[in-house]
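The aim of this short unit is practical: by the end, you should be able to scan a pair of folded records and say something sensible about each. We start with the first protein, listed as its amino acid sequence and then its structure tokens.
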Amino acid sequence: MSKIYELYGYRLQNWDDEAENNLRRAWCPFMNAECDGGGNRYQSAIDLQINPDLKARIPEKDTIQCGVCSLQTRVGEQPWIICPRRLLSLKKGNLSF
């Protein structure tokens, strides 16, 4: 089964305060703007009004895009980029695979 590898530009295994801040703002570091679901995934939006645990972590939003940048299909294998914003990003540093 696939698992989320990157969420809002950050690897889950390296989650830190900066990553948590991106989550709170639903921020895409590849666009330097709020995540738009890759421009084509609006049906994956999450209604925070019906998810109180997530709403507590993202208090200033009512709806967010899912923020999933990449998935890993098997442990030890290269992740699959599923967001076009991530795929086309030229950003380097701690956000690259």
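Turning to the second protein, read its sequence before its tokens, just as you did above.
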Amino acid sequence: MKIGFIGLGIMGSAMCANIIRKHDDEVYVFDALKEKTDLLVKEGGIGCTSAKEVAEKADLIITMVPKSAHVEAVKEEILEVLDETKIWIDMSTIDPDVSVKISEEVKKTGAAFLDAPVVKSRPAAEAGKLGIYVGCEEKDYEKVLPVLSYMGENIIRMGDNGKGLVMKICHNALVSQIQNGVNETSSLAAKNGIDILTFAKAISYGGGQNFYLDSKKDVIAREDFTTAFSIANMHKDVHICLDLAKQSNLDMPGEANAARVYDEAMEKGYGNEDFSATVKVVRGRKAC
């Protein structure tokens, strides 16, 4: 099976590198920025000059791009070359309703379509230890599971098309609210002379222990917000969540509060920093 990978950013490049190393057939690669394509060619991928070229040559096409509009642009480019011999896995985090509409168009060509967004960040992508939530027909899931296993170790089919994305949005919404709780309480502790590392150690003794704090305490202590997962990407995800909640007739005040923090982080120009940099927003706020 020949694989094609479109979108070689922070996550996509690491995911694609794992496929190149582990797969025993050709892997075609493309990114809109040629230098990113060239980096994966050095890893052993076969460079292409367009998404369409990837789709023409590959049996299984994987996309990992930033937003709904980017996935729709890929669809417009590759739809005419899709047929019953092709499978498209979109691993981007986009609006679930947009993904479902794309799946319907793709299926009309005879091709299979799966949404398979990932959780965790760059280090897990490099190690091939991502979590992957899949939305698709069951028969298609079995076909692609070996390929998904190149990139992740915890893979679960959530249901039909769109359900993988619903789960990813729920996951990231929960992370954003846990994060905001960490930001607020650790800032309060700091105001009263307790540093973040001591705070994290003390939290680990009780029911407040959480993966976010455990994994980010050191970067917060160093104030080194080198991007593993950007504020801009999480900003997009929390607003997808609020849109989905509105469509579902559900009020989510906790997520609305997290969204306000992300809105402020974007306004302050932090968008390209790691999402843990939201702590700077909370630290900078004054009591009402």
